[in-house]
Design a protein that fits this description.
The protein is α/β, with parallel strands linked by helices. It folds into three domains: about 200 residues, Rossmann fold, CATH 3.40.50.720; about 90 residues, Orthogonal Bundle (N-(1-d-carboxylethyl)-l-norvaline Dehydrogenase, domain 2); about 140 residues, Rossmann fold (3-Layer(aba) Sandwich). The protein contains 17 helices and 14 strands. The strands form three sheets. A six-stranded parallel sheet has the order 3-2-1-4-5-6, sandwiched between helices. Strands 11-10-9-12-13-14 form a six-stranded parallel sheet. The longest helix is centred in the middle third of the chain and has 32 residues. The radius of gyration is 24 Å and the shape is elongated. Bound molecules: nicotinamide-adenine-dinucleotide. The site of nicotinamide-adenine-dinucleotide has 27 residues, from helix 1 and helix 5.
C-alpha cells in the first residue's frame, strides 16, 4: 500500500520506517530540507535504539523515501498521515498551525478520494476542523465533488523504545465513522495486528481524547509518586519501600511510579497543559491536571534546593559533575528535561557544570552552544574531575554501577545528589559518601 507521511520527527520517521518494514511504500516529507538531505545521506536527525538500521535497510530497498516535495506526497498515496509537531502555544494550548498547513496542502493538491490521518496529538475537535478546512478549500477551488475522510489515529510510541512500540503496538486507535476509511486503516495496520486484536475503532473525538487521557494518566502517576516521595522525606519513610509496597498491587502496578525529578520530554508537559486548556474551553476546571502540572514544575527544582542547602547557598564558583542530560534514558531528546532546569539554576547561582550523557551531547551543544560555565565531557569519568559534587539527572543504565573508588578520588568532595535513586544509601554511607536521593533519608 502507498502511504505518505508529513513530518519526519520522532513519530513520522519511526512510524514511516515501521510501515516500510512491513512492506508498504512510504514517502516521508518534511519542510526541513536539511533534515531530508541528511537522511538521504544516511544521517538520522534523532537517536532511537534500532532506528538507524531500520531506516537504512528500508531506504536502500526503496520502500522508504524522503523528500521535501509536499505536492508529490499528496499524489503518492490515498493515505496521508500527518505527523507534524503540535507545540504549546503561548497560553499552553496546542498550536495547530502545522497540522492545518498540511491539511491545506493536501486540499490544494488532491485529485481523488483521500484519507487524511491525524497521528499528531491534537485537541478534541481537530478532525472536524481539518474536515471543515479541506471542504472550504475544495469549495473555493471549484472541486467540491472530490471526497475525503479525516481519521484520528493517535500515536502512542515512547521515545527510547519507539521502534519496538511501532513494530509491536499495544493498541491501534482508529477514530472514524467512515467504513471505507476504517477498512483502509485496518489494511494499513494488518501487519502489526497479528497476535491479538489491537485495533479499537471509535469516533474521532473519543480517539483524540484517548491520546490526552493516556498521557495525562501517566503524568498523574508520576506526579503522585513525587508527592509521596516528598512526604516520605518529611515523615522519615523510604519511598523505595513504599514503591515496592504499592506496586505489588496489580491495580497499581510497578510502571510509572518511580520518584524522580519530574517528567519532561516533548509530550507529557505539553499534553497536560493542552488538556487543561481544552477543559477551560468548555468551562471545566481540570483541577487534577492542574495539580499534576504544578507538582511537576516544583519537582524539577527539588534537587537544586538540596544542593543549595548542602552548600549553605554558597554555590558561586563551585563546579558540579552532571550525569544525564536527556529527559529519560535511551533518547537524545532534551525537550523539557529536568537537567535543563537544574543546570540553569546552577548557572544562575554562579556555579559551573561538567556534563556527560551517553547520547545527548550534540543536543546539549545545539541548545546551549559554548559557554564558560558548561563543559561537555567525553566520558562520565571525565565529568568528575575536581567537581564539588556529582549530580545524576537521568537513569542511564551505564550510571548504575560506577567505580565508586574512582568517584571518590576524582570528586573534590564525596557528595552525590541523585535525582533517580540509583544507589543504595547504606552502601554509599559505608563508602564515605554523603548521598542525597529522592524520597529517602540522607544518612
Ligand atoms: P518533531 O518535532 O520531532 O517533528 C515534527 C516534524 O514536522 C519536523 O521535522 C518539522 O519540520 C515537520 N513539519 C512541520 N511542518 C510541516 C509541514 N507543513 N509539512 C511537513 N513537515 C512539517 O515532532 P514529534 O515528536 O514527531 O511529534 C509529532 C506529533 O506527534 C506531536 O503532535 C506529538 O505530540 C505527537 N507524539 C509525539 C510522540 C513522541 O514521543 N515524540 C509520541 C506520540 C505522539
Amino acid at each position: 500500500m502507498n502511504v505518505s507521511v508529513f513530518g519526519i520527527g520522532y513519530v513520522g520517521l519511526v512510524q514511516g520506517a515501521a510501515l516500510a518494514e512491513a512492506g508498504h511504500n512510504v514517502l516521508c516529507v518534511d519542510v526541513d530540507a536539511g533534515k531530508v538531505q541528511a537522511l538521504k545521506d544516511g544521517t538520522l536527525p534523532l537517536y532511537e535504539p534500532g532506528l538507524k538500521s531500520l531506516v537504512r535497510e528500508n531506504y536502500q530497498s526503496g520502500r522508504l523515501q524522503f523528500d521535501t516535495d509536499l505536492e508529490a506526497a499528496v499524489h503518492h498515496a490515498q493515505l496521508q498521515l500527518i505527523a507534524v509537531g503540535t507545540p504549546p502555544d503561548e497560553d499552553g494550548s496546542a498550536d495547530l498551525q502545522y497540522v492545518l498547513s498540511v491539511a491545506d496542502t493536501i486540499a490544494r493538491h488532491m485529485r481523488r478520494y483521500q484519507i487524511i490521518v491525524d497521528k499528531s496529538t491534537v485537541p478534541v475537535g481537530t478532525a472536524d476542523r481539518v474536515r471543515a478546512h479541506v471542504s472550504q478549500v475544495l469549495a473555493d477551488t471549484g472541486r467540491k465533488d472530490l471526497t475525503f475522510d479525516v481519521v484520528s489515529n493517535p500515536e502512542f510510541l515512547k521515545e527510547g523504545c519507539a521502534v519496538d512500540d511501532c513494530m509491536r503496538p499495544d493498541r491501534i486507535i482508529i477514530g472514524t465513522d467512515s467504513p471505507e476509511a476504517e477498512a483502509v486503516m485496518r489494511e494499513l495496520y494488518e501487519p502489526f495486528n497479528r497476535n491479538r486484536e489491537k485495533i479499537v475503532v471509535m469516533d474521532a473525538r473519543s480517539a483524540e481524547l484517548t491520546k490526552y487521557a493516556a498521557n495525562c494518566m501517566l503524568a498523574t502517576k508520576i506526579s503522585f509518586m513525587n508527592e509521596m516521595a516528598n512526604l516520605a522525606e518529611k515523615l522519615g519513610a523510604d519511598i523505595e519501600m513504599v514503591r515496592h509496597g504499592i506496586g505489588s498491587d496489580p491495580r497499581i502496578g510497578y510502571q510509572f511510579i518511580y520518584p524522580g525529578l519530574g517528567y519532561g520530554g516533548s509530550c507529557f508537559p505539553k499534553d497536560v497543559q493542552a488538556l487543561i486548556r481544552i477543559a477551560n474551553g468548555v468551562d471545566y476546571d481540570a483541577r487534577v491536571l492542574k495539580a499534576v502540572e504544578a507538582r511537576n514544575n516544583e519537582q524539577k527544582t527539588t534537587l537544586f534546593s538540596k544542593i543549595f542547602d548542602h552548600f549553605n547557598g554558597a554555590l558561586r564558583g563551585k563546579t558540579f559533575a552532571l550525569w544525564g542530560l536527556s529527559f529519560k534514558p535511551n533518547t537524545d531528546d532534551m525537550r523539557e528535561a529536568p537537567s535543563r532546569v537544574l543546570m540553569e539554576a546552577l548557572w544562575k547561582a554562579g556555579a559551573s557544570v561538567q556534563a556527560f550523557d551517553p547520547k545527548a551531547m550534540e543536543e546539549a551543544q545545539r541548545i546551549y552552544g559554548s559557554r564558560d560555565d558548561l563543559l561537555l565531557t567525553g566520558t562520565k569519568e571525565a565529568a568528575l574531575k575536581n567537581a564539588d559534587a556529582l549530580i545524576i539527572a537521568t537513569e542511564w543504565q551505564s550510571f548504575r554501577a560506577p567505580d565508586f573508588d574512582l568517584l571518590g578520588e576524582r570528586l573534590a568532595q564525596p557528595v552525590i545528589f541523585d535525582g533517580r535513586n540509583l544507589y543504595d544509601p547504606q552502601r554509599l554511607k559505608h563508602r564515605g559518601f554523603t548521598y542525597y536521593s529522592v524520597g529517602r533519608q540522607t544518612l
